[in-house]
Amino acid sequence: RWAKSHGKNRVELYDIEYDVKLRRLTELEHELRGAIDRDELHLQYQPVVMLPDVRPVGAEALLRWQHPRLGKVGPDEFIPVAEECGMINRLGAWVLHQACHQLSRWLAEGHDVWVSVNVSPRELHAPGYVDQVKDALRAHRVPPQRLVLEVTEHAVSSDVEELIRRLRDLRETGVRIALDDFGAGYSSLGQLRRLPVDILKIDHSLVVKEMVRVVVELGHQFGLEVIAEGIGEQRQMTMVVEAGCKLGQGYLSGWPVPAEHFEARLESATSPARVVPVPEQKRD
Ligand code: C2E
Ligand code: MG
Ligand code: MG
Ligand code: MG
């Protein structure tokens, strides 16, 4: 009898948790629909730096959502919602446009820099995505090789042949492709070898002793540029540099920051005579 009522309570507790989660997702979905029009979204830029001198050479655009009542909602929470409810294509188009706009301004000011944007598998497979990229490049007069599209390794698990075709079409426009979160998914070396990508972004979970060296060498063997992600401490930085990795990204070399802050960083890097104070970089 106790066991029975206990079991029942457990079920109820589970139901409540489930209910809370479901409500949150429903609310996010509902609020996300108007987020662009209400101007609640913006991009932050996290520097990708040359090692070991830590000079910024590129930036990853990361989407931020600030809701008046819900506060800051992280992309790890709302991107899956957007993917689920089919809104990712609209969000992605907005991100692409914003990032190209910003990039064209930096280039016009003479900065030697590139920008990467994250692309969800669902965007990649949408008909017309390649044209969308071409249009964005043309509209903002961005040389294609200045734009990097990041495709997560998790996208490799589904239809590899189709993915290869898509990436080839994209690459024909002249943009560069980065395989994001490499090492966190389950793609095989055979698959990696066949993927038409230019850059390998090593997932932070692989930035541990020996692993990082092996993956850096593998990437270079395959003729790829390699970026070590999630370098948060000096210890990791040392490891990455010793592994022969030329590019890095992480909190240690720069948090994701608003465009103006990244720009200040670019300016202080190109003109050492003029010291531009970089605003305190806080966690968003
Ligand atoms: P990602 O593409 O792998 O981006 C890197 C994530 O690692 C970012 O989280 C960044 O803030 C975080 N990070 C940077 N340095 C460090 C570090 O030193 N240590 C640790 N532990 N983490 C670090 P964020 O901004 O929360 O984004 C999470 C994910 O959301 C991204 O992972 C990406 O998959 C997705 N995302 C973000 N913006 C977009 C977007 O515009 N479109 C799409 N489709 N996905 C996006
Ligand atoms: Mg990324
Ligand atoms: Mg990543
Ligand atoms: Mg990630």
Written description of the protein model:
The protein is an alpha/beta fold. The chain is 46% helix and 19% strand. The chain contains ten helices and nine strands. An eight-stranded mixed beta barrel has the order 1-2-4-5-6-7-8-9, surrounded by four helices. Helix 3 packs parallel to helix 5. It is globular and about 55 Å long. It starts with a helix and ends in a 14-residue tail after the last helix. The mean pLDDT is 91. Bound molecules: ligand C2E and magnesium ion (3 copies). This is GGDEF-domain containing protein.
Describe, in short, the structure shown:
The chain is an alpha/beta fold. It is 46% helix and 19% strand. The structure holds ligand C2E and magnesium ion (MG) (3 copies).
Key descriptive features of the protein:
single chain, alpha/beta, 46% helix, globular
Number of helices: 10
Low-confidence stretches: none
What class do helices, strands and sheet pairing give? alpha/beta
Helix content: 40-55%
In terms of DSSP E residues, the strand content is 15-25%
Number of strands: 9
Give the helices and strands as they follow along the chain.
HEEEHHEHHEHEHEHEHEH
What is the molecular shape? globular
Instruction: Report the span from N to C terminus.
Output: 51 Å
Which cofactors or ions or other ligands sit in this model?
ligand C2E, magnesium ion
Structural Rg: 21 Å
Helices and strands in order, then pairings?
Layout: H1 2-35, E1 41-50, E2 55-67, E3 71-73, H2 75-84, H3 88-108, E4 114-119, H4 121-124, H5 129-139, E5 147-152, H6 160-172, E6 176-182, H7 189-194, E7 199-202, H8 211-221, E8 225-228, H9 234-242, E9 247-248, H10 259-270
Parallel strand pairs: 2-4, 4-5, 5-6, 6-7, 7-8, 8-9
Antiparallel strand pairs: 1-2, 1-9, 2-3
Bound molecules: ligand C2E and magnesium ion (MG) (3 copies).
One magnesium ion is lined by residues 60, 118, 150, 180.
Protein name: GGDEF-domain containing protein
Organism: Phytohabitans flavus
Domain EAL: 25-270
